[in-house]
Amino acid sequence: MGRISRPRPGFKRSTPGIVLQISRNCGYARSGMERVAHARRAGGASWSSIAGLAVRIAVALPGSYGLAVATAFLVARALPASRVEAATTASLLAFLAIPAAAIWAFAASTAWRAVAGVAGPALLFGALAWLLGPRP
Q: Helix 83-107 crosses helix 111-132 at what angle (to 10 degrees)?
């Protein structure tokens, strides 16, 4: 549904345009932070939105650290370099996993996707590093 916008007095529009009215719920999946903000505007946060935010915080803080450790562990074992060079390179790459996991924790559409998106790769990387075995 649209309405024809009227120009302000003294403002000349070159082409007439239609301003679309966009409803609050546009049909797209809201992220977790948008749901919490919407719940607060609607008269208070529900317990489910508070629990979802708590899960996201728990995933973002220790989950990002776990993903970084698993990433460093896997990269250090997989690189065909000396131990010192492999550990240094793995540590530098693992620092990229921390903000990526934190961003994913709050950008995922549900709290369960946030958990799966951080814990899944961390468990996978840890298992692959364990399967590679100790470095010779």
A: 160
Torsion angle of the four alpha carbons 6, 7, 9, 12, in this order, in degrees rounded to the nearest 10? -140
Asked whether 113 and 104 are in contact (CB, 8 A), the reply is no
C-alpha to C-alpha distance for 117 and 95, rounded to whole angstroms: 17
Reported as a single tens digit per residue, the pLDDT across 14-67 is 544 444 434 444 545 556 666 666 666 656 667 777 888 899 999 999 999 999
Closest C-alpha to 94, from 62, 58, 66, 116: 66
Nearest to 128 by CA among 91, 90, 78: 78
pTM for the predicted model, two decimal places: 0.65
Radius of gyration of the chain (CA): 23
| ∠ Cα 115 103 113 (to 5°) | 25
